[in-house]
Amino acid sequence: MRQSLPRPLVLLITGKDPVESTGGHSVYCRMWARAAVAAGFEPELFCVSHSEGVVETDYGRVHRIPSPFRRLRDVHRTGFRARTIGWHVVILRRAILSFARGLAPGRRVVVHGFQAWTAAGIPAVRRMRSQGQEARFYMTAYTVIAHELHERWRGVWALPGVAPKLAMSGEMLSLHLAITPCERRAAREVDRILVNYESVRRLVTEAWKPTCPIERVPYTTETALIEDREPSPLPDGVPLVLAVSRHDSRKGLDTLLKAFALLKRAGVLFRARLVGGGSLLPIHRRLASDLGLDDAVEITGYVEDTRPHWDAASVFVLPSHEEGSGSLSLLEAMQQGKAIVASGVDGIPEDIEDGCSGLLVPAKNPEALAAALRRVLGDRSLRETLARSARARFEERFAPPLLVKAVAELYGAPPTSLGAAGLSAAGRE
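Structure (tokenized):
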């Protein structure tokens, strides 16, 4: 009888601390790590942090490497400022290389990095291979920094005042200089680049010109891997429109506020809530006040638990100018069974079928956005139909077992029974 090989050790290079950071990158990394655990692996996660040591979590062991740049910590709890990534890659590289030196000879290893942080794994993979170890090297990409910065740069010039324009332009230049070399270096070294969208495949192919295969893999929400609740009925009364997003020039929240102003002038009854932090939060609060929306639109800032806001909402809106790929908050809306109105940019049309699982509108167009919102706000039957279709789309394309199976195959082990909370419930295909 053929003896099966032991499961490989999985090293995940998250860069940002998944325990403390709340940004989309860290949520994505935790989601992937939870899927790896459900597939039977015991991931080791490597990150920079203001803390030091190893933390045991239900999604793996987190190795926290202390950063010397504590004063440059992002105030919006998304980790350290991205312009320090070049220095942090060096710090992580040393820690991962040290960890690799302690591995038993012959141990099979998978090194899997996320975005530019993947570059931190290059020396460790080279060393393991030089000693005859089997070391596979993967990179997940969900955007290209040049694509993201292009839209952010355009958004900067809509800001009031000269000082914010200069400050943010300098910040974006430093991001480009810090992150682009790491992305390209990693893309040249890895065995495979993993993407979730064809839109990202095109971006990666054009920007990095990799020679390795680019493989599309499924993904899901972190909440579905923990506990996938059945959607609650849409609330009665005046519909609440919910946006869950960072206040960033790419996210189009200024366009959304202008659309709300159009709805209010047209006499449409609605309530709205914008949930999330970000550098443009105070600017958007002033804009909402200037547009006379104080009595209709609540801008909460960062919140720890978004579940009460999801439960209260009837409509989810994603007015992004640019996403690169798709949106985790959009997947959350599909999972929660909400009527969706979203910009038809980047990977979003790959997730939402216009008129079926949501309504798609042109980006940067307040009039089109207001018209779509007015349509769903005025028709409860349409809201319920879109909500059911969105949930069905989530179960078809984003059910957790699809990701768990993909992770098991990618890392070279047979899938285990899907016993984690919520997996069997979400596994209807």
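DSSP finds 16 helices and 14 strands in the chain. The radius of gyration is 22 Å.
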